[in-house]
TrEMBL record:
Keywords from the named record: Aminopeptidase, Hydrolase, Metal-binding, Protease
Name of the protein this chain belongs to: Methionine aminopeptidase
Organism per entry: Plantactinospora endophytica
Cofactor remark: Binds 2 divalent metal cations per subunit. Has a high-affinity and a low affinity metal-binding site. The true nature of the physiological cofactor is under debate. The enzyme is active with cobalt, zinc, manganese or divalent iron ions. Most likely, methionine aminopeptidases function as mononuclear Fe(2+)-metalloproteases under physiological conditions, and the catalytically relevant metal-binding site has been assigned to the histidine-containing high-affinity site.
Catalysed reactions, semicolon-separated: Release of N-terminal amino acids, preferentially methionine, from peptides and arylamides
Enzyme category, top tier: hydrolase
Bias type Polar residues, positions: 254-263
Region (Disordered): 235-272
InterPro entries: Creatinase/aminopeptidase-like, Pept_M24, Pept_M24_MAP, Pept_M24A_MAP1
EC identifiers of the protein: 3.4.11.18
Primary gene name: map_2
Amino acid sequence: MIEFKSAEEIGRMAVTGQFVGELLAELAGVAEVGVNLMDLEHHARRRISERGAESCYWDYAPSFGRGPFRNVLCLSVNDAVLHGLPHDYVLRDGDLLSIDMAAGIDGWVADSALSVVVGTPDPADLKLIEATEVALEAGIAAAQPGGRLGDISAAIGEVAHSYGYRVNAEFGGHGIGRTMHEAPHVANSGRARRGLKLDPGLTIAIEPWFCRSTDKIRYDKDGWTIRSADGSRTAHSEHTVAITAAGPQVLTRRPTQSPTPTESTRKPGTAS
């Protein structure tokens, strides 16, 4: 069942989204060579507690994974792309780190992710991250009232293919609002003008993620961490977005990011 949100409810989600966006930007700045992943995890736990927020990850127990998730961040390094468990690992020069978090404030949730290179970047890693960011912006720009869910999926897939990457269809975006995962599923590849109509009040998380040279994945023994099947590097970008009568409203913009597509003349498929 899909729950459409009122303008007031979207405003409450935006409060959470602002916090999530600010904390992600903060964590990206903390992630440096020599920093332990558990330092990032504990930093986030402290900030979530100080804000009076709740982590959507803590005790999350879906059909996959082994036991409930007992962290507030997903930290995925290099060939890991989704659901990476924070653990005792010290970041090294050139590591590609994806940070994903979802939190709730007063019963309303927001979810967002970004990827960064720690230390000296490999141009191929920067290209991969750029592709996810451009695909995310294209997906957001396609999230127009009266359109179709497939418009978003097609826009993401088109960017992926233009960069030379294949798309895995097993995991993608999702509805969001009172809980982290709601209907509908938002695939990262699809056909335009197909699928659910995008009516005002729909709130979704759009999250393209790509592997450098494969669309196949494998799981670690922990049952959570998802990696590229061939060991190639990966990247992940995500925003929580509300469909409004005026166009898509991004609820998790980070402090240094540019305005939403409805506030600028940016064309679909161009980076923010």
